Amino acid sequence: MRRLTVSGRAAGKGAAVGALLLSVAWAGCDRGEPGRVSPPEGAADVVTAPATLGPATASYPATVVSTDKAQLATRTSGTVRRVPVDVGSVVRAGDTLVVLDGGDVEARIRSAQAAASRASRYYDRIASLEKDGAATGQELDDARAGMTMAEAGLQEARAQRGYVVLRAPFAGVVAARDVDPGDLAMPGRPVLRLVRPGSLKVVADLPGEVRGDLSRGTAVTFVDPSTGRSVAGHVTRVSPALEPASRRVRVEARPDAGVGESLPAPGSFVRLALTRPGRSTLWVPDDAIVRRGQLEGAFVVEGDTLRLRWLRTGETRVGAVEVLAGLEAGTPVVRRPAPTLEDGQPVGRRSAEPWTP
Fold it and tell me: Closest Cα partner for 313 from 342, 282, 350?
């Protein structure tokens, strides 16, 4: 009987201890979700996306130029008398751009008129003498030739009058002005540069090995490094031969219809990006990139812990960044990471977002 009493007491104590442990365990559970342990203190809720293989791209330096441009020069020498336009002036076709001093031209015209008048009178005299038999047919022919030459000289002198005024060959904007009143204009030396805004193309000299990837109509992207803005375009011309010294090929491309105005001004530097067929590379969402100083990285989820991986990045396209080193395909990276995230921080709630580079 005594043993039974002792056993009963022991059983009672065991039940009490079990109840105490159960209450402690219950206290450690999430009261909102019975059976689930609360996240560790300081855990971060994250949204992830996998690093994904996608088409490889490459970009090269290029220059924006106007498809309608002209380096304007005078066809006669002379002192510049007036320049009614300046850089940025909008002009219409036929507008006056430069006016030269026409004194010399007018003097040549008067001289040519006098010579033509003399030649005409001389011909008339010889023709009259020839009728009377006082002049030979050869003399008449020589007089006729002299009159023809004098008239041609007069026409040439009068044509110079049109060269005194330099007019716009098309409507556009003055992009450069190299003369001022009083300067001496010389034939063949540019005095103004005129461009037509909105008619833009991109010119690039690319390595010869990419020529096989390009043809008329190949899709490309223009990226403005100063703003990060991208503009879709297509190849319009590929040189059939490489430049002998550099082994590079000249390529011209234009923006797609309706986006030409998105390109920066003529003369601006852009990058021409194109897809390399049959090649792939690793991409992550651009909003996953963390920049600290000169370093670029991304937070990845390893088990239940955040890790900051430093990366070597490559090309940038709309919504995606190429990863050359530091990640493997399928690694979950944190999108839109909060500035407070730290390496080694525990992960709380986690959700995944599908994406395509």
Answer: 282
Which residue range forms the structural domain that includes residue 298?
Answer: 45-53+281-352
Helix (H) or strand (E) holding 20: helix 2-27
CATH number for the domain including 330? 2.40.420.20
CB 312 within 8 A of CB 275: no
Calculate helix-pair angle for 103-131, 137-163, nearest 10 degrees: 160
Neighbouring CB atoms inside 10 A of 335's CB total: 20
pLDDT digits (tens, 9 = 90+) for 279-320: 788 989 999 999 988 899 999 999 888 999 999 988 777 788
Quick one: tokens of 13?
């104590």
Enumerate residues 6+ apart whose C-beta is below 8 A from 63: 202, 203, 204, 267, 268, 269, 270
33 occurs within a structural domain:
no
**Residue 110: DSSP 8-state:** H
Q: Which phi and psi angles does 158 have, rounded to 5°?
A: -65, -35
Q: Let me know if residue 218 belongs to a domain.
A: yes
Whether residue 259 is found in the same domain as residue 245 = yes
- Structure tokens of 264? 């920066």
In-domain check, residue 14: no
- The DSSP code for 202 is E
Count: domains in the chain = 4
Answering whether pTM is above 0.85, one says no
Q: Specify which residues 82 forms β-bridges with.
A: 99
